[in-house]
Design goal:
Shape of chain A: globular
Strand order of the largest sheet of chain A: 8-5-11-10-12-13
Order of helices and strands of chain A: HEEEEHHHEEEEEEHHEHEHHEHEHHHEH
Radius of gyration of chain A: 23 Å
Helix content of chain A: 40-55%
Largest sheet of chain A: 6 strands, mixed
Distance between the termini of chain A: 34 Å
Oligomer: homodimer
Number of strands of chain A: 15
Strand content of chain A: 5-15%
Largest interface: A-B, 66 and 66 residues
């Protein structure tokens, strides 16, 4: 399985293992009390915002005025992007829901949902979208008939409080799906929901397995002396790097996205990168889906959910590969671009505020369109199963400044 | 969020916590040497079978006869089920591939693929289907043009050696997707692929996170004093049980399937159940998909992959719920059965060897069809977010003999 006609001579580019390093562990939290204080402050802010919104409604009613709630408009037309801020953010357009005879049910449901959130923050509990829908079956006339209705109310509440920097997860509404898998030079600090005692989870100690990110990560803190986070598109490549302890030789943290990353995965990487000042490198397939749907969503967010970007996007992310140029440099096996790929790439060039801002990306996508092919990250296995570990990644990581933005 | 109109009075059905127990840890392996010996024996068997098949071809050629390879037929027509054996098994029908001018490429590819497997066993490495496809790009005339071709050859090889009790994972071909998440009273023993040193992974120590099952689990061993394994359909319910440490109060191991369980998840549960003699209880949605596609596949396997059942099915599994009767007993919110649900249920009654064998299942499925509705496991949240932990599961677990087979 050795590389037989490998396109470049083998160089000693591997970095020294981390065991010899003595750098201090990066972390913003020192002990259980600090973790607790920080989480309590976040909860307090969320409760304050809920109570504030409710009091406003209450005050209007006492003054015999019609109460209303103002929600940001969630649509592509109400999205802004600037290189400096680094992510899609929601614009200033609002829609107002005023309490009238016609809107009374939706208005009541919104307030009950906010009440549920407050109750969950106070009892340190949480609910998925489905949980919240079924909970409402006990709300008598305010019960939801379909989950799509409760989902929509939840989305509105999320957008409402996102303006104050409070995320859905801080409101204790959590996604139904888990986050991805993590392995490498990282301690995750997770306070027990009852006792507050901190579990220190060492991500170097999972053998061939990995740490599975919980549905919500707001309460987690980190300690690490890693140099970077490597986020990986496919489970197969993650398993290879994990089984061969690539995180040890490269002093990094590996995160498996398994396709488009879930909310929990994106939030986990964002928090980790923010709190430990770590660069994030993305390793995905070289096709318009990997570039646009996976990488772009990870880095700046998506158009129809711009109110989430402030929490979920990872503006620190840079694109390690596979790049269109890699297909040539590494003589990778390819597949022809499908019509849907071509459409997606042209859309990105024409309509996507992120790609429009970055000349390097325009050049790379045009190159891909001209070549008319795509390549998967596992195509590197042509040169040997572990070529990715022994050659490709070390060469790439020696020149991080050349990564696409 | 307390249960307001809960359908039955609260009873003290919770089991004693495990901390008071002094039962010996169940395990079939005692130390690193034993783990190593066991894994080496499995590898030796696999290599022996590969070499045997190759030698047979070689001998035929030396005798100037046409060599051939005999593969079991992979189709529903070639499947057997008996209650006693407990899973779908592959029948006696074979297809023979003889080396001729027309079959030479496929024949050569099959042998190269077997050679790759032998090489990976000897170097303790592994490949996904994609890896194997791309590896072949260096096989000159034996290279595959499409991944569907290499997948098909791999399936044949898997079926070929399954007759000798050797699984695809033992041949070192691993799935591209990870397994599910695990939490609870379990130590996973995972030998390092280079040093053989054993990592002991304590699944009680992951806070709100979990252990993510690796792509292949053949090399793992276990230590546990849990009473049972609870496999859960949705990530949301798993997160609830994990965050509230249900595994502690009920002395069990929680496994999240996140829909139809992956190969790695099924194999993990099967090994765990076999090696530690643990019962497995399934907690899924009450609909024909949960019953037939998720539970039935977990327990006895699926028709078109019967050669896998001996490794991947979990005959020890029993159905905790949600049952059609639970919908009535717990007054659960429901959705109407769709046409596709009704078709799936009628198919199960008429054509599925598993459901045909079990009168209790026929009765339950007929009841569901008569009621014309389905219910999700999260519907229990109607009675309070934690009703599932405080009432439903303890009541169910007090009467495990009543579980559907």
């Amino acid at each position: 399985m050795a590389a037989r006609r490998s396109p470049a001579p083998k160089k000693k580019t591997r970095k020294k293992t981390s065991t010899g390093r003595k750098a201090p562990r990066k972390s913003i939290v020192r002990d259980a009390r600090e973790v607790k204080r920080r989480n309590e402050a976040l909860d307090k802010l969320a409760v304050k915002k809920i109570v504030g919104a409710a009091r406003d409604v209450h005050d209007h009613i006492l003054k015999r005025k019609k109460p209303d709630l103002e929600f940001p408009v969630r649509s592509l037309r109400n999205v802004q992007y600037s290189k400096k801020q680094g992510y899609f953010s929601i614009g200033k357009q609002k829609k107002v829901r005023t309490l009238t005879v016609n809107t009374v049910k939706g208005f009541a449901q919104t307030l009950r949902m906010m009440g549920l959130s407050k109750e969950m923050i106070e009892t340190n509990d949480f609910a998925t979208k489905r949980d919240a829908y079924y909970q409402s079956k006990n709300w008598e006339d305010a019960r939801f008939d379909e989950q799509s209705e409760s989902d929509s109310v939840m989305d509105d509440i999320e957008a409402l409080f996102s303006v104050d920097g409070v995320s859905r997860e801080q409101l204790r509404f959590v996604p139904d799906e888990h986050g991805g898998a993590v392995a490498g030079q990282l301690l995750v600090l997770d306070p027990d929901r009852d006792t507050g005692e901190i579990e220190r989870i060492d991500c170097t100690r999972f053998g061939s397995g990995a740490y599975s990110i919980p549905s919500t990560v707001e309460h987690l803190s980190f300690e690490t002396d890693a140099d970077f986070v490597l986020v990986i598109e496919t489970g197969g490549v993650f398993q290879r790097l994990q089984s061969h302890k690539f995180w040890q030789s490269s002093n990094c943290i590996l995160v498996s996205m398994a396709g488009v990353p879930t909310r929990a995965t994106r939030r986990f990487v964002r928090k980790l990168s923010d709190e430990c000042a770590l660069p994030v490198y993305a390793f995905v397939d070289c096709d318009p889906y990997g570039i646009s749907n996976i990488y772009r969503t990870l880095k700046v967010g998506s158009g129809n959910a711009a109110h989430l970007s402030q929490f979920f996007c990872v503006p620190q992310a840079r694109y390690l590969g596979v790049t269109p140029q890699d297909i040539l440099d590494y003589e990778l096996p390819t597949h022809p671009l499908q019509d849907v790929d071509i459409k997606r790439a042209k859309d990105a060039l024409k309509n996507d505020p992120f790609f429009r801002e970055h000349a390097e990306w325009q050049k790379a996508i045009r190159q891909l369109l001209k070549m008319g092919v795509r390549a998967e990250q596992q195509a590197l296995a042509k040169w040997g199963l572990n070529y990715v570990i022994e050659e490709y990644l070390p060469r790439k990581l020696a020149q991080t400044t050349r990564f696409l933005p």
